[in-house]
Amino acid sequence: MYKHKYTKAQNLRYIISIFASLLQFLIPHPKRKNGISVMIRVRDEEDWIATSLLSLNEFADEVVIVNNNSTDKTLAEIKRIKERLNYKLILENETSNDICKVSNHALSLTSYRWIFRWDSDFIAYTSGYRNIKFLREYLLRLNQKKSYLIYPLTFSFAGDLFHVKTGKETNSEGYIHTYHPKLKYMKKGKFESLQVPFFYKIKRLKEIYFVHIGSAKPIRKLLYRFFWLFWQKELDKYTRIDDFIVHIAREKWHDLSPEKIAIQKFRDLILPVRKFERNEFGNYPELMQEEVKNPEFKIIYKNEKPFSRTDFEDYI
């Protein structure tokens, strides 16, 4: 099993929660049915949204999707597989470019005790010892008179489906939590942060039940990934991220094309990577097998080191 290294801030918060959670017996807990709501924010996620939703069939009681200005086939992909979903699906729109407003809208639509902030490029395991149904069973067994913040582990792919970021092979964030009316997403520096009451007990999962596609995405998605947080600080000037990228290309990248910017940022931020070894990390989720057999792109090696990607060749 791969051992994850937590940050100092995460370790401190974990220790504090051990003592703060002792006060829970003095605090009334909101009444919700002991089930699982999954909330997903989507914007142009046609590549993986269908597989992601299908992988939740044995886990979720309901899935809340808030569509944020998608212009690709995201909604068509959701409609295509809707009849194959075993849970209640709630789909609404939120046009704001403020990610916190989108998240809080999704949060307000949930109705079960447990809430999982799921990304549309998370793919769950659906068989074997990592089957996500075992995570469901674990959550529903936890004391219903206590409030929890759960940190699950996940593998995050880097560049393609066959590599992970060297030194950052796994990721762990507080994606799962019980409901409370004071929960709220707020900006914390450049990032979005869920404000959780101080008395929540933090638990860390050691088993991995899902993977994160991460930066194993087309070149345009990489571009959005690199510039999203910077764009969020300029929303008053640029309502579209594409306009912001054009501005950045002109002002700071000497009119370099957006695609070439993405390639440069790929080399700076994603590399170095190492191979996703099955004897170390285990198998891929079952629903990813077709994509693994027929990948859209792969990292290219030069002098035995990762250097570029097959789809970049059209822009170099």
Plain-language structure description:
By secondary structure, this protein is of the alpha/beta class. It has 2 domains: 8-212, Spore Coat Polysaccharide Biosynthesis Protein SpsA, Chain A, CATH 3.90.550; 219-314, no CATH class. Helix content is 30%, strand content 26%. The protein is built from 10 helices and 15 strands. Helix 6 crosses helix 7 (241-251) and helix 6 (219-232) crosses helix 8. The longest helix has 14 residues, at 219-232. The model has no long low-confidence stretch (mean pLDDT 94).
Largest sheet: 9 strands, mixed
The end-to-end distance, rounded to whole angstroms, is 40 Å
Shape: globular
> Strand tally, please?
15
Count of helices? 10
Order of helices and strands: HEHEHEHEEHEEEEEEEHHHEHHEE
Helix/strand layout:
Blueprint (H helix, E strand, L loop, with lengths): L7 H13 L12 E10 L6 H6 L7 E6 L6 H8 L6 E6 L5 H11 L2 E6 L4 E3 L7 H10 L6 E9 L6 E3 L4 E3 L3 E3 L5 E5 L2 E5 L5 E12 L6 H14 L8 H11 L6 H13 L2 E3 L2 H4 L7 H5 L5 E4 L2 E5 L7
Parallel strand pairs: 1-2, 1-4, 2-3, 6-12
Antiparallel strand pairs: 4-9, 5-12, 6-8, 6-9, 7-13, 10-11, 14-15
Helix pairs in contact: 6-7, 6-8
List keywords for this structure.
30% helix; two-stranded antiparallel ribbon; 15 strands; Spore Coat Polysaccharide Biosynthesis Protein SpsA, Chain A; 2 domains; 9-stranded mixed β-sheet; alpha/beta; 316 residues; 26% strand
